[in-house]
Amino acid sequence: MPESFLERVRQAAGAPVLPDLTELDLSNDLHVDRAASALLQRFQAADDVAAFRLLLELTADRLAALAEEAAREQGLAEPADALVAAFVEGLFVDVSPAAGPGSFLARAAAAMRTEAETLVRDIALSDIALDGHHHHGARLDGHAAKARKARKARKEDIQRATRVCFHRLALPYRRALRAKEVEGLAPPAIAQRLAMTPQDAEALIEEAETALAAALERALGGDAP
């Protein structure tokens, strides 16, 4: 008979974790927190890779959900799994003990919020370095290969500029556009997400799209698509 998840955690942690339970409920944050704290302490104390792997298996779904929440909160248009990766990498660097039971998910949430803020800031401060020489690629010497190369470079310019300009928008605009463009939500769902009327949500989306288009046009020197 396969071992239960709880027994796996107890064996990996080398301690009677959650002695009051006969089953580990992965939908219960308190259960996950207590088990995760024990596994993290084992990893920090003994450099136990098996405990760390089980920790990631145990918390994978919750970490993904926390990352999505942080990305939505900050209006980050980057993949949310980058936030999880940064947090996991940080566990190898910050070996200070967790604050105790119930602290692991809170620690993860705080770390990923900070990482999302940092990513938004860093992208917004990036230079929009355009190649410049290929904006009129169709006028090159007529060779198809050079024309295709120019179009590809132009597309990369637009993608780079859009990424930076998006993250320079005000937070309400980023949140609205992320909900529409990244998550694919309709205006009624965006309105519910942002706690506003559908009419206000549609107006906010329109303002955000106008602001992004204007910023992109400025970034591309008036040559926006």
Main attributes of the structure:
225 residues, 9 helices, 68% helix, 3 domains
Write down the overall geometry: elongated
* Main β sheet profile: none
Structural class: mainly alpha
Q: Rounded to an integer, what's the Rg over CA atoms?
A: 23 Å
Q: Strand-and-helix sequence, N→C?
A: HHHHHHHHH
What would the average pLDDT be, to the nearest integer?
85
Residue windows where pLDDT falls under 50 for at least 5 positions: 133-140
Helicity level: 55-70%
How many domains, as an integer?
A: 3
Count of alpha and pi helical runs? 9
Termini distance?
A: 62 Å
The counted number of beta strands is 0
What percentage of the residues does DSSP assign to strands (E)? under 5%
Q: What would you note in describing this structure?
A:
With 225 residues, the protein is mainly α. The protein folds into three domains: 5-119, no CATH class; 126-168, no CATH class; 169-217. Helix content is 68%, strand content 0%. Helix 3 (49-74) packs across helix 4, helix 5 (104-124) packs across helix 6 (144-168) and helix 8 crosses helix 9. The N and C termini lie far apart (62 Å).
